[in-house]
Design goal:
alpha/beta, Rossmann fold, Dehydroquinate synthase-like, alpha domain, six-stranded parallel β-sheet, three-stranded mixed β-sheet, 16 helices, 9 strands, about 50% helix, globular, disordered N terminus, ADH_Fe/GldA
Length: about 450
């Protein structure tokens, strides 16, 4: 029996090889050939003639399945696609919410970009005020100011409008509003005791995924350190990703947020607590980003690219929301807090350096990442270098600065940056643990890599 199955499997592989090597214009197999190939392969797998793929690029866990299983975190409801904002209004009305505080940044407020949200709320009988105090790297002071306005006007829920900065600021306000104290009290993992105020997060960028995650990053202005608040309670009630709101996003911001999403996907896939659900989300996010980010940057009006990048960043959020991240984010948080640098750009600069560091610990995982990035099926020996090169090429193509020197980072600060990086919760799931000296060396490599002469402004 095994001989027969093996023979059938060999013939099936022969069919596949002929199809792949065909030089004719019709390269797709017929329905009959596809069914036959699948039947042969399935029979061979069942009989044991072909091994079931496992591990990094198979149908099993990367990591040991923990006792009690994995947790998977999502918003109560997620709305994705053109017209999603309108649907959100119906849900707000059904929740019997009466008065909203819209948390956004000053630029969006002055440009009148918040008007679609005001119109949506008004159409559903909801009052609203606008708090335009979310800074690019929101601080504890922004949270305190927003909380004061919330209480002054008696708002019973919050709408965040914009990118990660608006969402994180709103999350900080929402958790303190119901739990009391200061935002500093919630630094770390699951420090709250009560649900947050209802939060509707309307996203206008395709990168941070803050509109749907349990992560909230707030800068402690006195320490110049970004506090990582990881708490299922800060997950927004409703996440809204409407690509029609993303069309006017500038090219530089599109690039930075897109590379942020890629970093989420790659780090989640490398994480020591990834699982089959997060793996699937991460890999598909990588495929979409590799296929559509360049177009979204070069032609922001391309509806297909905007739509697919919206899905990509959401999938990457699904991945890291449960699998967490790694040293790229742990180190980028320090750069953002210390120098007030754009988060996505910091991630993009650090990503190839950290993955080169991780390669010796988990080389097999780079096989899948390479395939998702369009590099084909490489060996575990070939994949890491190819993946790192592909990440650098994508960054260069969308105009990300080459290194930390171009961002104004100072080598004399590496020591304190490294020390704080090792305290950041995002680094705890990196596949290769690092010492402080190794983190300093990684900062140095990110400082020296490439050329400082790339065109994109670091302040994008």
């Amino acid at each position: 029996m095994l001989r027969i199955v093996a023979s059938r499997a060999s013939r099936a592989r022969g069919v596949a090889a002929r199809l792949l090597n065909s030089s004719t214009s019709v390269t797709a197999p017929s329905i009959a050939e596809t069914v036959t190939l699948r039947a042969f392969t399935t029979t061979a797998l069942k009989s044991g003639a072909l091994p079931i793929p496992t591990g990094a690029h198979g149908v099993n866990y990367h990591n040991a399945n923990p006792e009690g299983g994995y947790s998977f975190f999502m918003p109560r409801q997620s709305l994705i696609g053109p017209g999603a904002l309108k649907t959100a209004g119906n849900i707000v009305k059904s929740l019997n919410l009466k008065k909203a505080m819209i948390v956004t940044d000053e630029g969006l407020a002055k440009a009148g970009a918040v008007q679609p949200v005001l119109d949506m709320l008004a159409a559903n009988g909801v009052e609203a005020i606008v708090f335009p105090g979310a800074k690019p790297n929101p601080t504890d002071e922004n949270v305190a100011d927003g909380l004061a306005m919330l209480k002054q006007h008696g708002c019973d829920f919050i709408v965040s409008y914009g990118g990660g900065s608006s969402h994180d600021c709103a999350k900080g306000i929402a958790i303190v509003a119901t739990n009391g104290g200061r935002i500093h009290d919630y630094e770390g993992v699951d420090r709250s005791s009560k649900p947050i105020l209802p939060l509707v997060s309307v996203n206008t960028t395709a990168g941070t995924a803050s509109e749907m995650t349990r992560f909230c990053i707030i800068t402690d202005s006195s320490r110049r350190v970004k506090m990582a608040i990881v708490d299922s309670a800060v997950t927004p009630t409703i996440a809204v990703d409407d690509p029609e709101l993303m069309v006017k996003m500038p090219a530089a911001l599109t690039a930075a947020t897109g590379m942020d999403a890629l970093t989420h996907a790659v780090e989640a896939y490398m994480s020591t607590i990834s699982n089959p659900v997060t793996d699937a989300s991460a890999l598909h996010a990588m495929k979409l980003i590799s296929a559509y980010l360049r177009t979204a940057v070069s032609n922001g009006k391309d509806a297909r690219a905007r739509d697919m990048m919206s899905y990509a960043q959401f999938l990457a959020g699904m991945a890291f929301n449960s699998a967490s991240l790694g040293y790229v984010h742990a180190m980028a948080h320090q750069l953002g807090g210390f120098y007030n640098l754009p988060h996505g750009v910091c991630n993009a600069v650090l990503l190839p350096v950290i993955q080169d560091f991780n390669a010796s610990a988990v080389p097999d995982r780079f096989v899948d990442v390479g395939e998702a990035l369009g590099l084909g099926r490489l060996s575990a020996a070939e994949a890491p270098a190819a993946v790192v090169a592909a990440i650098r090429e994508l960054s260069r193509d969308v105009g990300i600065p080459a290194n930390l020197e171009a961002l104004g980072v100072k080598p004399e600060d590496f020591d304190v940056l490294a020390e704080n990086s090792l305290k950041d919760a995002c680094g705890f799931t990196n596949p290769r643990p690092a010492t402080k000296d190794e983190i300093v060396d990684l900062f140095r490599k990110a400082y020296e890599q490439g050329s400082s002469g790339q065109a994109m402004a670091a302040s994008a």
